[in-house]
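Hi! If you just cloned this repository, the fastest way to understand the data is to look at a raw example. We've pasted two of them here, unedited. The first protein comes first, obviously.
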Amino acid sequence: MMTADDQDRCQNHPNRPVTARCLRFNRRFCDLDFEEDFDPRVECLSEGTYCEYRDQCMVWAKIKQRRRREKRKKAPG
């Protein structure tokens, strides 16, 4: 059984606090999960489909930020 303390901990790094939570699938992530070299990469499970929570989703916002950083790095000049 999951305790309230477990709900505040990252599912990939149980010693770290949650900084983003997927409301649709109740997935919990910390900042380390969104680092460029984290493997496996955190991706939205609803990408390509409708998600009623997307407008308020911190997971989606962090994924978009990461993609923008990657795009800027690949841009010439």
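Ok, and the second one:
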Amino acid sequence: MKKRYTSITTFIVYICNNSTDETYYITIVIDAKPIGRLYGGDWMFIPYEGEQGIDISSTNTNMELEYMVIYQTV
């Protein structure tokens, strides 16, 4: 996921690792800074400025991931 949103003021990002195997995890990096890992079944909401890229990598190629960007326009 690498999208940039610039004409919107407020963002919340939701990311969920839908894997049923707790040993599979995804790593979240924002603007080249590691944020953390989400193991199978974990999810997170984070505030987001919309100017940095979000990079997500996984430990397995067959993992399911959900994400959503919630925003308020000006």
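That's it. A detail worth noticing about the second one: The two ends are 24 Å apart (CA to CA).
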